[in-house]
């Protein structure tokens, strides 16, 4: 053989144990946050047509879901509410007996060790489907802040461990932090949807949460998918206003943004593996085009590799099973 000089990288790939020994990125059950859609009514367990395996659940159906979550070793859930009635100002979002508040009380009473993260927004509760107060077709920033802070406080009173505001109004973290502090909830952290793009990947979620805008779109408050530097400005503002976690949403097409935010900030970074990303995988798996387990685990690992500490994902239950199997 010729006298060649080269590095033998394959030495560290020879066996499964060797590959495990030098593996750099790990996905744990503790990294997963499972989204749950809670609806008003009784005996409701509606599968979301565009999200196979994901259900809208009434409070009386939560026990079975939570028993499974606990048995799988998942430590945190994020609750989204689907009310029966909606109005112009999203009253159900901040009502003492709103659906997220009632779902939170149920989980904390029966599963006190589980962390409950409350999604804090108005879009599921407004009859126009936007994330704030609307006047003549415009989504008003500052009047919306008061209602968002009111929502956060009501969720904290119900027992939420973490407040997760997703509305993308300017100043929302500052308003919510002030509202929580004034109400005696200085200890409740804020998991901010700091970097949330006006993405086409949200369609199935809007089916699940019944939150499709009735006019226009959300491009005046959610970010342009073409922008990268803007993400750091948004995250910086939220950190300065008191955010404890930073969410990047969506995740899969925005791994570069997750890495940018990770490099810039020391707070825990959360990747939101959104509904469209989930549904594409499910559709391909149902058609037999992919190996679902291998693809999902590769996808979630890529989010950890990009810099995420935690992942909100509809795959959480399956991923927890696959992680357990690999131990």
Question: What would your notes on this structure say?
Answer:
- The protein has helices at residues 16-21, 62-71, 91-94, 99-110, 141-158, 172-182, 203-209, 229-241, 255-264, 275-286, 292-306, 316-326, and strands at 32-39, 45-47, 55-58, 76-82, 115-120, 133-135, 138-140, 162-165, 191-196, 245-249, 269-273, 310-313.
- Helix 5 packs across helix 6 (172-182).
- It contains twelve helices and twelve strands.
- The strands form two sheets. Strands 1, 2, 3, 4, 5, 8, 9, 10, 11 and 12 form a ten-stranded mixed sheet that branches. Strands 6-7 form a two-stranded antiparallel ribbon.
- The protein has one domain: Aldolase class I (TIM Barrel, Alpha-Beta Barrel).
- The chain has 327 residues and is of the alpha/beta class.
Question: Could you name the CATH homologous superfamily?
Answer: Aldolase class I
Average pLDDT figure: 93
- What's the shape? globular
* Discrete helix count: 12
- Number of distinct beta strands: 12
Largest sheet: 10 strands, mixed
Strand content: 15-25%
Give the terminus-to-terminus CA distance: 42 Å
Low-confidence stretches: none
Helix-strand string? HEEEHEHHEEEHEHEHHEHEHHEH
């Amino acid at each position: 053989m010729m006298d060649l000089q080269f590095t033998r990288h394959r030495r560290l790939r020879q066996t499964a144990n060797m590959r495990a020994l030098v593996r750099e990125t790990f996905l744990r059950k503790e990294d997963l946050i499972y989204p749950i859609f809670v609806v008003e009514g009784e005996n409701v367990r509606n599968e979301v047509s565009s999200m196979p395996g994901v259900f809208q659940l009434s409070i009386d159906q939560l026990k079975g879901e939570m028993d499974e979550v606990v048995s799988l070793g998942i430590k945190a859930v994020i609750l989204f509410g689907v009310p029966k009635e909606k109005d112009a100002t999203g009253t159900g979002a901040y009502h003492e007996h709103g659906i997220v508040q009632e779902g939170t009380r149920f989980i904390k009473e029966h599963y006190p060790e589980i962390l409950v993260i409350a999604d804090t927004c108005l879009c599921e509760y407004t009859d126009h489907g936007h994330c704030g107060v609307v006047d003549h077709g415009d989504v008003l920033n500052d009047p919306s802040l008061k209602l968002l802070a009111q929502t956060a406080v009501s969720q904290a009173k119900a027992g939420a461990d973490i407040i997760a505001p997703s509305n993308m109004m300017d100043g929302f973290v500052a308003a919510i932090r002030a509202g929580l502090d004034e109400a005696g909830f200085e200890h409740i952290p804020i998991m901010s949807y700091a970097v949330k793009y006006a993405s086409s990947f949200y369609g199935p979620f809007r089916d699940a949460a019944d939150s499709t805008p009735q006019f226009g779109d959300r491009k005046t408050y959610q970010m342009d998918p073409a922008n990268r530097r803007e993400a750091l400005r948004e995250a910086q503002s939220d950190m300065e206003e008191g955010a404890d976690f930073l969410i990047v949403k969506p995740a899969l097409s925005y791994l570069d943004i997750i890495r940018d935010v990770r490099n810039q900030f020391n707070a825990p970074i959360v990747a939101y593996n959104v509904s469209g990303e989930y549904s594409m995988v499910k559709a391909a798996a149902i058609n037999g085009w992919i190996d679902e387990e291998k693809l999902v685990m590769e996808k979630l690992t890529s989010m950890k590799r990009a810099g995420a500490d935690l992942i909100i994902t509809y795959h959480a239950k399956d991923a927890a099973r696959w992680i357990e199997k690999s131990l």
